[in-house]
Amino acid sequence: MEIHATLGTIGTACLTQESLNQLINSGITAIRLNMSYVIDEKLADTISQIRALAPHIKIGADIRGRKLRIGTVPSGKTALKAGQMFRLYPSEEAQNGGEDYAYVCYPEMASKIKAGSAVLLDDGNITMTVTEIKGREIICRVETDAELTSGCGVNTPGCPIDLPPLGKKDYGDIERLSGLSIDFVYLSFVERAQDIAILKETLRRYNMKDTVVAKVELAEAVKNLDEICRASDSICIARGDLGVEVDLPKIPYLQRHIVKTAKHFHTPVLLAGELMFSLVNRHKPFRAELTDIISALEQGVDGFILSDETAIGVDPANAVRHLLALIREHAQHSTA
Description:
Layout: E1 5-9, H1 17-24, E2 30-34, H2 40-53, E3 58-63, E4 68-69, E5 77-80, E6 85-90, E7 101-104, H3 109-112, E8 118-121, E9 126-134, E10 137-142, E11 146-149, E12 153-155, H4 168-177, E13 184-187, H5 193-205, E14 212-216, H6 219-223, H7 225-231, E15 234-238, H8 239-245, H9 251-264, E16 269-272, H10 287-299, E17 303-306, H11 308-311, H12 316-335
């Protein structure tokens, strides 16, 4: 992984020829494809466009792993009100939901979760409490007003996700990616080194490069960090989900610990999660975001992954330029 790599996530904001060209010419070093959102019919064309415009840019595919997501909701988003009841239904694959119910891609969820448990969606921005379980129906109470969007993530703190590291969708995605010249693969919700070994073996079976970025976003992964660093080609501190799985005040200290451990094993470490989230709707980042990135560089972070900033932001290329300016500023002060 290139030192001080700048990775951007492809999304609706950069799928036109013009916007994609601007992003590629912004100085970005790698592109991330989130396979939970990529439209299968556009996958090959998107990769072909990137290769044609910039053969030197690396492309990484982020597969779902144990990541839980809901299916679609009406019109792509639905308003939730505090106190309303909302039903979740376990499913093999995420399906279409309604105004007051959604499907979760976890077939055993109803048997694993209990009344009184918390269900957090969209990186913890939506909190629900399980009030009752009727067969395969999980009845929840919404705790705060919120907007639920299709495909958003689901976390169940204190309720282990009893799933293999690769699911049916992941194997299908890998098969689709096998002929598309992918440089590396991110694995979400890694728990242990064996998860990475399974993915690497699968990639080799499809004659793909077996370069794996392990996403550290579970408390279990932090416990097994040494073996994960030894098994991976790079790790990513995914602060979004990690901030749901552990208490928020612990995040800055966990980040420092993970970077230090990765450095000990000479494993490149990337940082992701609300780096410059303000740029989803603004053209200039918040000052606190600038300090956060410089602090990460001083800790020894090797690269950054922009997510919503480039996927749905008002100006994806602008987000990359702001990040690169901070990296250059840090380099000047480090050599002064």
